[in-house]
Amino acid sequence: MSTSQCAVYQVKDTSEYRDVRFRSYEKLKSEGRTVQIENYQQVYIGRIQPGETPADIKTRLQKQ
């Protein structure tokens, strides 16, 4: 991955993770849960446009 790319990861879409799939990191942290890379899958990889912010990327992906 180059420095002008980004990747989006989501908790795996399985029944095992259903109760935490859309919780925020802050919420999980407050419950004493830790992030484990093996629980995630990459769902997107793409280029970042000059000046693009994480919020811009989220908006762009929601339109797809």
Report on the structure:
The mean pLDDT is 89. It is built from two helices and two strands. A two-stranded antiparallel sheet has the order 1-2. It is 25% helix and 23% strand. The two termini are 22 Å apart. The radius of gyration is 14 Å and the shape is elongated.
Entry summary:
With 64 residues, the protein is α+β, with helices and mostly antiparallel strands. The chain contains two helices and two strands, in the order βαβα.
Rounded mean pLDDT is 89
The helicity comes to 25-40%
Sheet-strand content, in percent, reads 15-25%
Please work out how many helical segments DSSP would assign. 2
Q: Sketch the major β-sheet.
A: 2 strands, antiparallel
Number of domain modules: 1
Span between termini: 22 Å
- Give the class from helix and strand content and strand pairing: alpha+beta
The low-confidence runs, each spanning 5 or more residues with pLDDT under 50, are none
What topology, given as strand order, has the largest sheet?
Answer: 1-2
Order of helices and strands: EHEH
Query: What does the overall shape look like?
Result: elongated
Radius of gyration: 14 Å
Number of strands: 2
